[in-house]
């Protein structure tokens, strides 16, 4: 037994020695191979360098040290020239950096993406918040019904205000169709005529001799032609602004139908300007290519090297796009014109019907909020009731309803309405808003609350003002955006209610801009987010209170001329 164990130990020991011996042999072979490869590479490198030295006939190092390459006088002149070149290079680089900082604006890129709420509502915890609002709507309807049942013995869901607001819906739709027809015919076909007609006024470079005066005459005619159509475009904007307003005031439209006409009027104007602003540079560039003033290769190099602003990185193949592209743009839920957009493969009609039903329910919710919390408070408001105590309490009482109306406007229009139209048109980019509820500054709130309008203001107002005024007047360009947005909001509100009461304008263009300058632009302090929410609630309460007081004061108080 002992002998067997001894033989087993001897076999295992010999196997271990053999394994170690093989490992040592492999290591030695590897070291020999590495040393041989290093020697071979070193020898080949020395032979290569010696051949290069012989071919170049390089002098010895002693000769290089003894003989100066450059005389002291030549060295001084070279140093002077070098310093001048370096300073010129630095100055040119600084100017290039300034130009890039003033001209390199990010452009709107469309890609397939869903709205944030669409993704968040996939989570059951977030979806329960929507169910809470639905239950509040049901309770409001039951409250109105039970109150009528106990007081009058019958149920009245109080649709009288809705019937009054939509009493002339057919006239409103006819006016909308007129605005739509004017936009389709006047804007597109006039632009089409201008883009193609100006080609005949551009002198062809290859067919002209330097002695003829035809180039000067054609250039003058082209300038007059372009100036005439620019003036006609400005006149069209004025006429398009005047006649719908004259019509709704002449016919005495109710509040809701007035707002529908005014919002659609502004939307058509923004769409028209986007179409003209995007395609006018393309038409001018196409004319230069057509007249052989520039070559297609130069345009391709410029498109590849420069920021893609004027042509969006696309060389125009026609001076004016097809009417079908313009027609799709008029209904697409975006205000930035492109010849094509990312599209989905099919239409989910269940998705469309669901969002349209939610849009109608949101409007009904907003109506009952207004009817329950606004009308009873301000319906009998007149000059005898106006005291500081009642005024302050009215603002505080309107804070919560105003916040709920804000949520209704956001969810109903920016989410449900735009997503429904995007689905019907297979429009794939659904980023109509961002996470504005996490904003810690007014600038981030303005950028993320309504991305559709913000993109238009940034692309066609801020960038153009920035190019015209320069980097020094960046603050002026920023205020131009805020001022224009405040003016358009006040224009819609004033004509909707029939009186000028610039509460929204002061909050937007004055207080909002001052807050943007005072508050930090980028911070992660959640106290600023609380401040934004509190400011929104108080501001909405003030708007709801003051506009309602003014409306019913004009209804109840005697008029003095």
From TrEMBL:
**Residue stretches in coiled coil:** none
List membrane-spanning regions: 171-195, 228-249, 347-370, 390-414, 473-493, 499-519, 526-549
In the UniProt entry, which residues are flagged as the active site?
489
Q: Which GO terms describe its biological process?
A: cholesterol metabolic process
Enumerate the GO terms in the molecular function aspect.
Answer: O-acyltransferase activity
Bilayer topology term: Multi-pass membrane protein
UniProt similarity note: Belongs to the membrane-bound acyltransferase family. Sterol o-acyltransferase subfamily.
Query: What name is this protein filed under?
Result: O-acyltransferase
What organism is recorded for this protein? Rotaria socialis
């Amino acid at each position: 037994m002992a002998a067997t164990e001894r033989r087993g130990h001897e076999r295992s020991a010999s196997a271990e020695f053999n394994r170690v011996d093989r490992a040592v042999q492999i290591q030695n072979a590897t070291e020999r191979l590495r040393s041989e490869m290093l020697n071979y590479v070193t020898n080949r490198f020395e032979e290569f360098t010696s051949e290069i030295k012989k071919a170049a006939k390089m002098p010895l190092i002693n000769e290089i040290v003894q003989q100066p390459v450059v005389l002291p006088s030549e060295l001084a002149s070279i140093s002077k020239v070098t310093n001048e070149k370096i300073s010129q290079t630095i100055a040119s680089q600084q100017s290039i950096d300034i130009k890039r900082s003033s001209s390199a604006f990010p452009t709107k890129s469309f890609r397939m993406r869903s709205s944030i709420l669409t993704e968040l509502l996939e989570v059951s915890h977030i979806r329960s918040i929507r169910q809470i609002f639905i239950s509040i709507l049901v309770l409001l309807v039951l409250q109105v019904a039970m109150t009528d049942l106990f007081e009058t013995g019958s149920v009245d869901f109080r649709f009288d205000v809705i019937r009054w607001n939509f009493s002339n819906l057919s006239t409103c739709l006819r006016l909308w169709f007129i605005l739509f027809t004017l936009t389709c015919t006047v804007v597109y076909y006039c632009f089409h005529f201008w883009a193609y007609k100006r080609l005949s006024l551009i002198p062809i470079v290859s067919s002209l001799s330097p002695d003829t005066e035809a180039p000067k005459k054609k250039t003058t005619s082209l300038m007059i032609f372009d100036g005439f159509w620019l003036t006609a475009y400005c006149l069209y904007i004025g006429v398009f602004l005047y006649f719908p307003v004259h019509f709704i005031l002449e016919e005495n439209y109710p509040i809701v139908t007035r707002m529908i006409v005014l919002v659609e009027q502004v939307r058509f104007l923004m769409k028209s300007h986007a179409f003209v602003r995007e395609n006018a540079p393309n038409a001018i560039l196409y004319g230069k290519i057509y007249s052989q003033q520039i070559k297609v290769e130069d345009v391709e190099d410029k498109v590849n090297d420069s920021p893609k602003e004027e042509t969006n990185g696309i060389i125009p193949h026609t001076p004016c796009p097809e009417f079908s592209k313009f027609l799709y743009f008029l209904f697409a839920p975006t205000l930035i014109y492109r010849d094509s957009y990312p599209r989905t493969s099919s239409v989910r009609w269940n998705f469309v019907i669901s969002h349209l039903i939610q849009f109608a329910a949101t409007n009904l919710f907003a109506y009952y909020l207004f009817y329950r919390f606004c009308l009873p408070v301000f319906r009998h408001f007149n000059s005898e009731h106006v005291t500081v105590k009642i005024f302050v309490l009215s603002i505080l009482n309107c804070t919560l309803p105003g916040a709920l109306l804000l949520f209704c406007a956001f969810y109903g229009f920016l989410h449900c309405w735009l997503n429904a139209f995007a689905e019907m048109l297979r429009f794939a980019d659904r980023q109509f808003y961002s996470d504005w509820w996490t904003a810690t500054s007014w600038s981030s709130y303005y950028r993320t609350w309504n991305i559709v309008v913000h993109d238009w203001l940034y692309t066609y107002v801020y960038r153009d003002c920035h190019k015209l005024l320069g980097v020094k007047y960046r603050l002026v360009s920023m205020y131009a955006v805020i001022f224009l947005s405040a003016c358009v909001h006040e224009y819609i509100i004033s004509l909707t209610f029939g009186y000028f009461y610039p509460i929204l304008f002061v909050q937007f263009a004055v207080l909002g801009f001052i807050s943007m300058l005072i508050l930090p632009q980028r911070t992660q302090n959640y106290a600023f987010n609380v401040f934004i929410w509190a400011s929104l609630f108080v501001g909405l309460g003030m708007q709801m209170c003051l506009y309602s007081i003014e409306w019913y004061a004009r209804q109840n108080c005697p008029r003095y001329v």
